[in-house]
Amino acid sequence: MAAYYPLFEEEIKQGPPGVPGIGFKLTNDGNYDMEKRILTNLNHPIELNDSVTKYYADVIRRDLNSEIMALSKASLMQNLDGEFDARNIPVKNLGKPNDDKDAVTKNYVDRKTKINDKRDDNILKRDSDGLYVLSLIRNGHYNFDNKRLMNVSDPIRNSDAVTKEYVDGNIFYATTEQYETFREGVFQAITFNKFSSKLLTPDMNLTCEMNMKIIIYLGSSHRKIPTIKLSIGGHHILERPLETNNESCVAIVFGRKDKQLLLEISSDGKENKIKPHIVIEKINYL
Q: Superkingdom of this entry's organism (predicted)?
């Protein structure tokens, strides 16, 4: 059994008195009220419910901000419009699309729409009201699959593609529906009734002022050498014999707007059935 010995008053040693403390105020609900004072000299927290210092909280916040920044850089974020912004970061590991609105991979798009691969069936097709992308056939030429090429600009180089409007505004062809009968000794004016464009009117009037190259060719069931006469606005251009089915006649002339081009033929025999052809090419001098 332990024995207890009393201390006499002269044996008690006291240290110097410390700074008077104010203590903690206890609230009515049993909590401590610091009254907006600072609690200093806290040790590093160990338990989850221990108080922490400002330094400890700042470190945690800095580390958390770094993790949030790293996560945001690797994540799709919504902008102010509610749209996801990838910020030029590749989206990886996409699955196979099942719905029309699913995102697809580059490999999927290349496999479905690649057009520089020389295969006959390499063409991007959509519904009947959609877009057709032309493909390259095996010999290296473009295959339009009987579709139109639209919205072509005006040509610059000789090898550039041109529009129907450009061709119609520069080249004109006219002929007759059937062979016409021409008689000897009299010039008969030709009434053309088949036209390729509107560079000239159905009455063969010029629609604009232009320099032009005129080519005349006569078709016939038999070899004949009739005489042709060409005039523009009553001005005589040429008169000469022209062998049917074998030769053509070329004239380069200037014509003014609304002037009529007139081609006349006189047969070299009693009767001659002839089908005339005339081509007019507008010349645009540099």
A: Eukaryota
SS3 267: strand
Tokens 């003014």 correspond to: 256
The DSSP code for 225 is -
Mean pLDDT computed over 242-259? 94
CA within 13 Å, CB half, 255: 31
CA angle (112, 93, 117) in 5-degree steps: 20
Rg (CA), the chain: 49
Residue 252: Cβ-neighbour burial (10 angstroms; 0-12, 13-18, 19+): exposed
Q: In whole angstroms, how far apart are CA 144 and each of 12, 108, 113, 139?
A: 113, 24, 16, 14
Q: What span, in angstroms and rounded, lies between the C-alpha atoms of 84 and 77?
A: 5
Which letter does DSSP use for residue 191 in this model? Answer: -
Q: Which CATH architecture has domain 166-282?
A: Sandwich (2.60)
Tell me what pLDDT residue 211 has: 95
Name the pTM for this structure: 0.51
